[in-house]
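just leaving the lab so this will be short. what follows is a protein written twice so to speak, once as letters and once as C-alpha cells for the fold. can you read through it and tell me how you think this chain folds. anything you notice is useful, everything is just below:
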Amino acid sequence: MGTIIGLLILAGVDVLLKRKTGLHLHQWIAKKYSDHQDNK
C-alpha cells in the first residue's frame, strides 16, 4: 500500500514540476546534477 502512495506522490510532484518548469522529474534532477557538476 505504501508503494502505491509513494508512486502517486511522485506522479503528483512530476506533474507540478512539468507545469512549473516544463521538465519531467528525472530531467529536472539531471539538469540540477549537471549544473552542480559544472559549478565544482
Observations:
- The helical segments are 2-21, 25-39.
- The chain has two helices and no strands.
